[in-house]
Amino acid sequence: MASMMQPQIILLKEGTDTSQGKAQLLSNINAVTAVGDVVRTTLGPRGMDKLIHDDKGSVTISNDGATIMKLLDIVHPAAKILVDIAKSQDSEVGDGTTTVVLLAAEFLKEAKPFVEDGVHSQNLIRSYRTASTLAIEKVKELAVSIEGKSVEEKKGLLAKCAATTLSSKLIGGEKEFFATMVVDAVMAIGDDDRLNLIGIKKVPGGNMRDSFLVDGVAFKKTFSYAGFEQQPKKFLNPKILLLNIELELKSEKENAEIRLSDPSQYQSIVDAEWNIIYDKLDKCVESGAKVVLSRLAIGDLATQYFADRDIFCAGRVAEEDLNRVAAAAGGTVQTSVNNIIPEVLGTCEIFEEKQVGGERFNIFSGCPSGRTATIVLRGGADQFIEEAERSLHDAIMIVRRAVKNSTVVPGGGAIDMEVSKYLRQHSRTIAGKSQLFINSYAKALEVIPRQLCDNAGFDATDVLNKLRQKHAMQSAGEGASYGVDINTGGIADSYANFVWEPAVVKINAINAATEAACLILSVDETVKNPKSESAQGDAATGAMGRGRGGGRGRGMRRR
Ligand code: ADP
Ligand code: MG
Fold this sequence. Notes:
binds magnesium ion, 20 strands, alpha+beta, four-stranded mixed beta sheet, binds adenosine-5'-diphosphate
């Protein structure tokens, strides 16, 4: 009787929901596979785009894995890991975001039957880690260096890499046009690490082909006051003064409190302010600058004053743009107009204000330090132009990567097939269960060429068989670079066809995807804390409940 009265042990708070064990692991794998299925169709040159709209009515059309993952707003706790690896791939190398998600999902899919059969996750994890190390070594071994080529030759090769990245995007039709532009832009900034030195300005309307590259800075004309139209709009080799001060009459407007005993003194106060601003303007003019830019407002008085002296001015220039002008033209932003020495003035070959579509642009080209470039993008709808910007960002990142560690591997699934073959061969030399696991890992790598075929409407089995045969036949490296031929539905030498990818894209993708897969395999229990749930508000809780439904249903439940 006494034993029945034993008190219940309460470990977790009332309302805590936990699911654990094999069922939990399988439900996590299912969730990840579901996410993989979402992005699957966007892979490759024939990949489809996703249109994502939220309740605020903003619409995004994208082919970029990272962008899609970010916008999907995934609530499943395990599947969220995929969002993180896509993001990290995006910031680390800039491309290969779909690849990484797809690989992680496929690794887990291959692991699923083993988990169901009762294999311990740790065994799988160990084998997967070994396989990933071997795969990365193999990629490094197969990579071809483009070092030691002349600048022109190198530019050509880099353009090929950029074109491969762009071929899967909305602007793929014009990939050569944009690839050259991207390479020129990257070459312009040299080794500088600051990506924001390449500006991308979007001007809706016109044709994609109207996009152009400025070897300097361009920004949209800022708000201007009367008198602006009298200012000259073009200069050759002007001196450029960059300011971070307001050139405007202010205190009078802003209710400054002044106590006067004699009303006739009022005029002297007003005069004083005018004198101060005239003094500032005189100093700007004396500096010899022909173009005056300020981050803060340049008022009507100043605008007219500059116009009378044939000086161009623009106020409220965005900080980013002003800094880029400073970097390109070689000036320094001033916070005072006292003591402007010639060294702080920048210059450029041509400054002009030009009409681009419906907008007016201030364009500084031929900048002496040449360390910046601006791409002015044209094209139809807003969504289109935004996707174009994201695509160019990918291409820019890829070219920069290729410039930095200049080894490339053949794309189109060629490298994946080759690594897969190598792992299969290697697995045969291993005794024990690990052989099966490494074999599955190898099989998972084939998802890239298979998906490229599927997305293009080719017979994936047929193409993959051809590829396997081609890769198996080779004795001395020949055939190793064969991948999917996206134009004919057969197979082709990706290397010869210039479908190149920087080796880091693949290395990073394999690494990140394996890590993510291992991470998910190593989780055997999820605990949901009731406190944090209520803190997240109604919307989030509702979504959480839905997202985790699978886990709860299958897993054991403890209270
Ligand atoms: P990710 O976000 O992973 O970069 P993409 O949609 O850009 O995904 O697709 C990249 C894949 O498409 C790579 O495996 C690449 O090798 C392949 N690919 C790109 N261009 C071609 C091409 N012209 N022929 C065959 N495969 C290509
Ligand atoms: Mg890509």
